[in-house]
Amino acid sequence: MVQSRLFPMIAQVYAILAAGNTMRDMYESMLSELMKGDMTSLAEVHAISSGLKSTCSTFAATGVEDCRKIMGGHGYSYYSGISHIWSTYVPSNTYEGDNFLLTQQSARYLLKQIKVATTDPELVTPFSKYVIKTLDRDTFTAERCAVKSGVDWLNPEVQLAAFEHRAGRLVSELAMAAMQEDMVWSDLNLECWRLSHAHSQYVLAKSTIDGVGRARAQGLSAATVAVLKRLSDLFTLHTIQASLGDFLEDYFVSPVQCQSLRQQIKSLQEQIADDAVTLMDAFDFPDQYLDSALGSYDGNAYQRLWDCAQKADINQRQVVDGYEEYIRPILHQHGPAKL
Ligand SMILES: Cc1cc2nc3c(=O)[nH]c(=O)nc-3n(C[C@H](O)[C@H](O)[C@H](O)COP(=O)(O)OP(=O)(O)OC[C@H]3O[C@@H](n4cnc5c(N)ncnc54)[C@H](O)[C@@H]3O)c2cc1C
């Protein structure tokens, strides 16, 4: 049970790193284009970075709280170190653009991409190509997930097709709703939010899948690539599972495919178990930064908890400050206790 709560978060962390690489490449290429006066990619960089900010910082804030719960009562202790990580990351959901508000930026952009697709499909930007398929309504609504047996879920093309279909459906539904007479944009906030997260999750999925290909091309060992592939699979399949309603709503995924999806996730989690500690150690966070009795390099959690409690200021005296002056007189006002 703990593994099924924790391991998808490890996969999320690596997917976020992969999306960070994608974002940096896009940003650097945009900068060099801007130097030549070409502003073509500005809108896409803005839309994708807005969406990713919202999705990734939401993952981070909910993830910190989930980690606290995974550690039970010890997680709630100040000495777990979670409280300072939580207080550092939670406001990221608000600053640099409130996470709910930001989703309107990427949703508006995708609506514009649908318009571009109807007039100049070749101008649709790389991460929005899926909107083109939605224009042929009959073919798009008849589209179904290609999984026949459970292992098909491990095929990156199958995974990406699922993310593209879901985001495509949401953007075409938003476009239709936006065209209604008397439409009030603020009434579509929730639809924008769903679409933006669907699109960002597609970008994350594509980035993590591309990241595995990149690792292979860089000549990393077969064993390392295999671990990265498992992480990528776990991220994509767990993300699909977490929003399964979106995939079932138009029958893209069948109930039988849902069952095989869960089995694959379970099997991936079992395979990742041996590498989980190394995958986190790879971040090389120093103990000083973690400031945690539970998360230090030697794993000697109970001794450290004990040492922290011994050193705590409040434990340096038998009673708290003010006890003798204020509390003791009240407790003893009727003389010594008779028990
Ligand atoms: C720790 C921290 C550090 C910060 N640092 C800085 C800084 O260095 N510099 C700086 O300039 N600012 C800073 N800020 C401010 C931050 O950028 C704003 O708090 C943030 O942009 C949200 O704006 P707001 O507080 O006015 O909330 P509001 O915009 O009033 O939002 C309140 C609520 O209403 C919702 N909402 C608002 N408008 C809409 C809409 N049109 N449609 C739907 N829902 C809507 C939001 O989703 C939110 O839930 C910081 C904030 C925090 C928490």
UniProtKB/TrEMBL annotation:
**Gene3D superfamilies xrefs:** Butyryl-CoA Dehydrogenase, subunit A, domain 3 (1.20.140.10)
Domain spans labelled Acyl-CoA oxidase C-alpha1: 1-111
User: Taking the first listed entry, what is the main subcellular location of this protein, grouped into a coarse class?
Assistant: other
One GO cellular-component annotation of the UniProt record comes to: peroxisome
Any one GO molecular function term: acyl-CoA oxidase activity
Q: What is this protein called?
A: Peroxisomal acyl-coenzyme A oxidase 1
Q: Where in the cell is it found?
A: Peroxisome
Q: Which GO terms describe its biological process?
A: fatty acid beta-oxidation using acyl-CoA oxidase; lipid homeostasis
Please give the InterPro entries that the UniProt record associates with this protein.
Answer: ACOX_C_alpha1, Acyl-CoA_oxidase, Acyl-CoA_oxidase_C, AcylCo_DH-like_C
Domain named Acyl-CoA oxidase C-terminal: which ranges?
155-331
List the Pfam families hit by this protein, alphabetically: ACOX (PF01756), ACOX_C_alpha1 (PF22924)
Q: Which cofactor does it need?
A: FAD
| Superkingdom assignment | Eukaryota
**Which SUPFAM superfamilies does the record associate with it?**
Acyl-CoA dehydrogenase C-terminal domain-like
Q: Which PANTHER family match?
A: ELECTRON TRANSPORT OXIDOREDUCTASE, PEROXISOMAL ACYL-COENZYME A OXIDASE 1
Q: Which residues form a coiled coil?
A: none
Q: What is the lineage of its organism?
A: Eukaryota, Fungi, Fungi incertae sedis, Mucoromycota, Mortierellomycotina
Q: Mind listing the UniProt keywords for this protein, alphabetically? A: FAD, Fatty acid metabolism, Flavoprotein, Lipid metabolism, Oxidoreductase, Peroxisome
Q: Which family does it belong to?
A: Belongs to the acyl-CoA oxidase family.
